[in-house]
Amino acid sequence: MLSKRFRTSIVTAGVAVLALGLAACGGSDDSGDSASGDSSAAAAGGGGDAIVVGFSQVGSESGWRAANTKSIQDTLTADAGFDLKFSDAQQKQENQIQAIRSYIAQGVDYIAFSPVVESGWDAVLEEAKAANIPVILTDRAVDSKDTSLYKTFIGSDFVKEGERIGKYVSDTLGTEPINVVELQGTTGSAPANDRKSGFADAIKDNPNVKVIASETGNFTRAEGKTVMEGFLQAYPDIDVVYAHNDDMGLGAIEAIEAAGKVPGKDIKVVSIDGVHDGMVALSEGKISYIVECNPLLGPDLAKIITTLHDGGTVEPRIVTEDGEFNQEQAIAALPDRQY
Ligand code: GYE
User: How confident is the model at residue 17 (pLDDT cuts 50, 70, 90)?
Assistant: First the structure.
């Protein structure tokens, strides 16, 4: 019961943050230029014309990504007034750059994308700006210094996610000396960089918690399993696996079981996301703790685009709210989970 109330308040808070983000800047000017207005063909029509949105997705590496894609495709529909062009970059930056260039060439009204890595976007974003096509970052950040290259960045605070899981590890598991291995997300991606640094920061004052190895598993179950197999061979004394997402944690569980050990007992697993399979593993005690990362960004993205289309402006950073779960809370939450 308690956990249900907790969830409700999180959802409410998430909506409030977004509402504030959109409403607070109705008349004000963010650092962007006037790109949202005149160049878009659909804006001139006044009614009826679909808003053309080009969306470049990272790939289909995880359960989180599948839920995120579904949310975007289910929301930006023809019925809702959108013409969505969607492409999957298969975790390759060059594919995303190519997709964005093609959206620019097609003269779409808006470009949205979830950047696979943080760096290397300035040139293509400048091309979008020169073509007067507003860009919206969803889920992951870019490290571009010129923030006028995009209208807003909507998504979770990944540093905070890393801190929250680090606090759990330090406070709950780190009451005695523990050896931690870390499965990092895609190298150079915002969630991998931030979840690593947030975690490191949260455990730094606890001398019991030692990270003995840290490698990328590229956010996939298969690579999480392979990297964990290597860790198990190299280190006989692993106490905790910190996986940057549930899928890599689930891969690690397969490796732990194949090595004849019991996940949740011999080796504890903690992860980030809260996707269905992760929550099931948590409810079974195979994962010990999950910090949530909400993938359902479609409705917020639609709201941002319609706000811009109506001539409004949006906050440059919109943070989605996330919960966290132990076993009991996972059991209570599972029946109502949307992903
Ligand atoms: O945690 C992971 C996915 O960018 C927040 O990407 C997203 C991450 C998510 O592959 O499962």
Answer: very low
Homologous superfamily assigned to 158-293: Response regulator (3.40.50.2300)
Tell me which residue of 136, 139, 191, 187 sits closest to 160, measured CA to CA: 191
pLDDT at residue 48, as a whole number: 60
Using a 6 Å cutoff on CB, does residue 221 contact ligand 1?
A: no
> What are the domain boundaries of the chain?
13-155+295-321, 158-293
Per CATH, domain 13-155+295-321 is 3.80.10.10? no
Distance, CA 314 to ligand 1 centroid (Å)?
24
Q: How far is the CA of 189 from the centre of ligand 1 (A)?
A: 9
Q: Are 93 and 35 in contact (CB under 8 A)?
A: no
Question: What's the rounded Cα separation, in Å, for the pair 237 and 235?
Answer: 6
What Å distances lie between residue 13 and 9, 18, 71, 293, 321, CA to CA? Answer: 6, 9, 20, 15, 7
Indicate the Cα dihedral angle 323, 313, 109, 85, nearest 10°. Answer: 0
Mean pLDDT of 49-71: 97
Q: Which atom of ligand 1 is nearest to the CA of 64?
A: 11
Beta-sheet pairing, 240-243 with 178-184: parallel
Which tens digits make up the pLDDT trace of 203-260?
999 999 999 999 999 999 999 999 999 999 999 999 999 999 999 999 999 999 999 9
Best residue for ligand 1 mutational test, from 62, 142, 164, 322 (most atoms within 8 Å of Cβ): 62
